[in-house]
Amino acid sequence: MSARFNKLTPVEVPREAGAARGGLDGITQTVAETTTCPNCFGSGMEVVAGKGARRYHCRTQGSRAELIDAARVPRRYAVCSLSNYRPADDNGSQLRAFKYAYRLVRDYPAVERGLLFTGPCGVGKTHLSAAILHGLLGKGIGCLFYDFGSLLREIQSSYNPESPLSEVQVLAPVYGAEVLVLDELGASKPTDWVRDMMMQIVNARYNEKRLTVFTTNYLDDRRCAGDETLEDRIGVRLRSRLYEMCRTVVVEGEDYRRRLDV
């Protein structure tokens, strides 16, 4: 097939043709010579180097609203975007975190590792994570946002005999999301059950090479972390997995929420 038939070339429809179809008399329309996508050629798939074939975003344009609803981004972060993230003046760590977030959105799906934003409260970790999801949703990528404590509570609720959902049904979208944000990793008291559940979730995504973005208030350096490090909260095995799954991005600064109390 000639390459010219794969291009969306605008052509003019004569008035006579419009009149013959009824209701279009006197109107000149611009239509496509073909509706075949010039990138996937109608297959709905694209090949990503080193990762195989995946659904091309042209097939998800009509379901953008459904993707946004399914992403479960909290209302508090519904308007968070990369364009309205404001690093503090002279804060190199926040600017660096922004650049990593921007590159992830720009380069996806040619991205091998997610991000682990670590730092104190109020420095923009969750904003950047939600902004990543919004950027990827704009590309037609299926995403999911979960506060880790809320996820654990949903799993626990599924054990109630009257619950409409089972543990498997709660976890299925978490395992299967193309891109997942897990906010506040390590915030829940690290009981054996909590650690087992964290390992189960992370290991499932690790094995399937699914991209995950994490935020946590716990650091790796004990001198900076105070009483507990991230490893203390989530365990050695899980922290080891995260080194391979994610780039650790330390975000520093003052709690921006304190500036609201004036």
Q: What do you see in this structure?
A:
With 262 residues, the protein is of the alpha/beta class. The protein has one domain (62-260): P-loop containing nucleotide triphosphate hydrolases (Rossmann fold), CATH 3.40.50.300. It has helices at residues 15-21, 64-71, 92-107, 125-137, 148-157, 167-176, 192-208, 222-225, 230-234, 236-245; strands at 10-13, 29-32, 45-48, 52-55, 114-118, 143-147, 179-183, 211-216, 246-250. The strands form three sheets. The protein has a five-stranded parallel sheet. A hairpin with a 3-residue loop joins strand 3 and strand 4 (52-55). Helix 3 (92-107) runs parallel beside helix 4 (125-137), helix 6 (167-176) crosses helix 7 and helix 7 (192-208) packs parallel to helix 10. The radius of gyration is 23 Å and the shape is globular. The N and C termini lie far apart (67 Å).
Would you report the number of β strands? Answer: 9
Q: For the largest beta sheet, what order do the strands appear in spatially?
A: 6-7-8-5-9
What percent strand? 15-25%
Amount of helix: 25-40%
Structural class determined from secondary elements: alpha/beta
- Average residue-wise pLDDT: 81
| Largest sheet: number of strands, sense, barrel closure | 5 strands, parallel
Could you tell me the CATH topology label. Rossmann fold
User: In total, how many domains does the architecture comprise?
Assistant: 1
The named CATH superfamily: P-loop containing nucleotide triphosphate hydrolases
Kindly provide the radius of gyration, computed on alpha-carbon positions and rounded to a whole number of angstroms: 23 Å
What top-tier CATH class fits best?
Answer: Alpha Beta
Shape: globular
The number of helical elements comes to: 10
Assembly level: single chain
Instruction: Spell out the helices and strands N to C.
Output: EHEEEHHEHEHHEHEHHHE
Architecture in CATH?
3-Layer(aba) Sandwich
- State the end-to-end CA separation: 67 Å
Which spans have pLDDT < 50 for at least 5 consecutive residues? Answer: 1-36
